[in-house]
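Residues determine shape. Next comes a sample protein:
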Amino acid sequence: MDAITSSSAVVLTPTQQTLLAQLKQNVHIHLKPEAFLAILEEIGTHDCKSIENALLNSDIRKLELDRCLPDASQRAQNVVVRGNFFVQVLRISNIAVPSRMAEQDGNNNRTLLVQLTDGNEKISGVEYCTLKKLSVDTPPGTKLMLTELHFRNGMILLEDSHFSILGGHVDTLVQSWLVNKQIFAGRLAKKQVEGEDQPPAFEPFTISKSAVHVESIALPKDGDRVRGNESKDQKSGGKQGQKKSKPQKQSTSSSKPPTENRSREPPSKVGERHHKMPNIERPAS
């Protein structure tokens, strides 16, 4: 079997090509030839099991892996995709509790948010059914094999039957994760000891007499009110005297005779007075 040349001009021997094919079949890892040769040089052996362990214990974001997850347009269609998808855990948090307690499992009150990557892009999965294989204590760098992807609004609905744990230990990621957990646990314990995490004690609301201040206002007496009104009248009278009196105009209209007060007659008499015909004597014939 002749050596083959990839599109990136990296030559693989028949033995290396066989190992690469076994990796794709066993753990469904699609390594580029450059990354595969770098791993072989690092571990110094051509044993397939050793290569698998080296891949599980590596941060796949630093390896040149082919994209395996569906693209964003397919994830947004709420579809179910079946296959074999090699991914790595980045972070697991409990979104059913406040953010300050997100690193705690929460017992019955738990909904896990799992952040994953295939080495090229990130994707999130949410705990759809109670997961026994994953928890907030699962360290980052753990490798999973997803076999069934149920997408809803761009996220994966995770169930135990849809994936398997491959393992793996990435030392740099685990050390950083443990330090953060210790810092978080120390802060939470300090708040609980000092009582900062508890609500304040109830204090009844009371108003002391010394705190009440009433401002007194002096009201005028009756005699002061009378004198005040007289002074106002004097001032108004002086102002009116200063004004010039204007001559009154004589009315040129003729004075009308006073109307006599006539008593109203009843309607029946008024009709008789107007409709009574005079007596006219007829001439003798």
